[in-house]
């Protein structure tokens, strides 16, 4: 445990002080190693140290339920991410044009469009980056965009995100499951309630503050 905690502390320190990270020349300028790479290096190093210096039976790791669940989620999310990225990259111009007309006519549909796009790309940041500039460009009020920011969370619509898959694998009681029609799974109602209530609250606050 202390090896793992030590690796976390080192990662946190390197994140707080970029000057401590290795420097590499990128396009003529010296830049520190990215935090994604730092995390990968030290987590792999911690895993190796645990195998070497503790009494871990490496043969049992693959049989561990947590490890198997994590691997299932990992493989699943890679496939879904590649598929979504390929589809969205090819059809982005068409989708922007079609969705833009709808949002321009009915600004409240911005929340629905953002929700669907976030599911397509499996990323809140990517959904915001793709759709917010379009919404601003066609005249959607900034207050509407801020009020419905919570709609960028659409991972749960289809149970393909690694945390969803891992949760299903971890739950030995069987109460967390994917239904017969796929979309009727254990996450759909909590997700819809959370996003809907957040959007309503955001709209109300924006209205009270005079942003809409």
Automatic annotation (TrEMBL):
Tree of life domain: Bacteria
A Pfam family this chain is assigned to: DcuA_DcuB
Subcellular location, record wording: Cell inner membrane
Coiled coil: none
InterPro entries linked to this entry: Anaer_Dcu_memb_transpt
Cellular component terms (Gene Ontology): plasma membrane
GO molecular function: C4-dicarboxylate transmembrane transporter activity
Transmembrane annotation, as ranges: 34-54, 66-90, 110-136, 143-161, 181-206
Keywords for the protein's UniProt record, in alphabetical order: Cell inner membrane, Cell membrane, Membrane, Transmembrane, Transmembrane helix, Transport
Membrane topology classification: Multi-pass membrane protein
UniProt family annotation: Belongs to the DcuA/DcuB transporter (TC 2.A.13.1) family.
Name listed for the protein in its UniProt record: Anaerobic C4-dicarboxylate transporter
Gene name tied to this protein: dcuA_1
């Amino acid at each position: 445990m202390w090896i793992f905690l030590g690796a976390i502390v080192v990662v946190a320190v390197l994140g707080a002080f970029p000057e401590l990270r290795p420097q590499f020349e990128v396009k003529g300028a010296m830049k520190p190693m990215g935090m994604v790479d730092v995390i990968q290096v030290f987590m792999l190093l911690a895993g190796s140290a645990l195998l070497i210096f503790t009494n871990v039976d490496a043969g049992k790791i693959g049989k561990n339920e947590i490890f198997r669940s994590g691997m299932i989620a990992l493989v699943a999310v890679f496939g879904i991410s590649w598929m979504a990225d390929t589809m969205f990259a090819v059809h982005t111009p068409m989708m922007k044009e079609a969705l833009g007309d709808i949002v321009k006519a009915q600004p409240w549909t911005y929340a629905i469009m953002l929700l669907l796009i976030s599911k397509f790309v499996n990323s809140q940041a990517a959904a915001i980056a793709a759709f917010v500039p379009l919404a601003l460009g066609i005249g959607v009020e900034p207050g509407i965009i801020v009020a419905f920011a919570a709609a960028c969370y659409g991972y749960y619509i289809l149970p393909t995100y690694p945390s969803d898959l891992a949760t299903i694998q971890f739950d030995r009681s069987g109460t967390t499951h994917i239904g017969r029609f796929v979309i009727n799974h254990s996450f759909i109602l909590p997700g819809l309630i959370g996003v809907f209530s957040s959007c309503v609250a955001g709209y109300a606050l924006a209205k009270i503050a005079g942003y809409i």
